[in-house]
Amino acid sequence: MMETLFLLSLCVSVAALMCARQSAGSERQIVRADNAPKAIGPYAQAVKYGDMLFVSGMIAINPKTNEFSKGSFEEQTALVLENIKAVVEAAGFTLETVLKATVFLKDLNDFQKFNEIYATYFGAILPARETVQVAALPKDALVEISVICGK
């Protein structure tokens, strides 16, 4: 089941990238949002390509200190979504332009709590999404989220 979800996520991401590549006159742009945490590895916060935005996976890092926040699941989830919002907006998009979200939870028992918080950010404009449980996340985070936006 996990392999199927991973392959489905990969296929959607590749399809989105292929559509983005077909945009006339598109250039790849690295997005850097000052009010979001710096990447903790060799990757960009996000990459804009044409009318598409690919936001890297985010964990609960305080953008002011660049330190991991070991708060509750709810606190980590809200911080991750705020960081995603900051990156999305820095690139000229909004949460309403999120087409797809990929969610990794350390414990799938947090699924309902996650949905309650997630719904406050996305309201009636719901992107496609998959949510999977993983064995571990960087810095022992409880949640990681990445998104794809389009205009």
Structure description:
With 151 residues, the protein is α+β, with helices and mostly antiparallel strands. Helices cover 33% and strands 25% of the residues. A six-stranded mixed beta sheet has the order 1-2-3-6-4-5, sandwiched between helices. Helix 3 (111-122) links the parallel strand 4 (98-105) and strand 5. Helix 2 packs parallel to helix 3. The model is unreliable at 4-8 and 14-24 (pLDDT under 50).
In short:
The chain has 151 residues and is an alpha+beta fold.
Structural key phrases:
151 residues; alpha+beta; 60s Ribosomal Protein L30, Chain: A; 6-stranded mixed sheet; 3 helices; 6 strands; 33% helix
| CATH-defined architecture | 2-Layer Sandwich
So how many helices? 3
Shape: globular
Number of extended strands: 6
Set down the secondary structure blueprint:
Blueprint: H1 2-21, E1 28-31, E2 46-49, E3 52-58, H2 73-90, E4 98-105, H3 111-122, E5 128-133, E6 143-150
Parallel strand pairs: 4-5
Antiparallel strand pairs: 1-2, 2-3, 3-6, 4-6
